[in-house]
Amino acid sequence: MSISSEHKPLGKQVTGSLHTLSPIVELNVGGEMYTTTLSTLKKHPGSKLAEMFTGQPKLRTDSEGRFFIDRPGTYFKYILEYLRSNQVPTQCIQDVYKEALFYDIEPLIKQLEDSPQIFGELVARRQFLARVPNYSENIELMIRIARAEAVASRQSNVIVCVVKTEEDAARCQDALNNLDMDKKSVVKFGPWKAVPSISDLLDCIQMDVEAKGYKISFQPHVAEKGFRFKSHDFFYKFLFTWW
């Protein structure tokens, strides 16, 4: 039974060689439509994007015959502009960087990594956090504690202890023991060997928890007993607001 021209398949695997196609290429990138040339897409031969359009095609097409790439279409325009004119984007840097990594366009990746936004994140902040023991695991632990405390509540609190040096960690031990006796969960960060301060780490914690979609704030935690020093030097209360 033949299929009429008015009822095309929703998608099909391309079986012909791209060498036989028109040099003009129509693309559907995550629902955004683009028109460009094969030479533009293949400008950097070692990239994943070039490989998509080299030799035997590996892409499917949409119902209109446009090559379909299942990626965010909004940022592909910046990728395309770079391929056309070597223009490095100045907006949506973080998102374009993710796409450049996916398409493996090495020259663009390197230029974006030199931008203040990516440099600050990868070289400065991430290198610092890599020196804070169990940082990522502690972020997840904070979230688990907050969610467990959220039953029938608008807000939940998580106590965090932040110590930069081994000496500070020793000073806090009695307070940690007292909190444990009171059956209060405490998430401990540090110590670490790097220049950033306790205040810097607190900002990082808030930034990374908020990046996961949570609404949080923090303030010094003042203990009721058992502290032989100012508790707000090392203990903080993170407040998760649910509604």
Automatic annotation (TrEMBL):
GO biological process: protein homooligomerization
Entries under Gene3D superfamilies matching the protein: Potassium Channel Kv1.1, Chain A
InterPro entries: BTB/POZ_dom, KCTD7/14_C, SKP1/BTB/POZ_sf, T1-type_BTB
BTB domain ranges (all copies): 23-120
A Pfam family reported for this protein in Swiss-Prot or TrEMBL: KCTD_C
Annotated PANTHER family: BTB_POZ DOMAIN-CONTAINING PROTEIN KCTD14, POTASSIUM CHANNEL TETRAMERIZATION DOMAIN-CONTAINING
Listed name of the protein: KCD14 protein
Organism of provenance: Malurus elegans (Red-winged fairywren)
Recorded name of the encoding gene: Kctd14
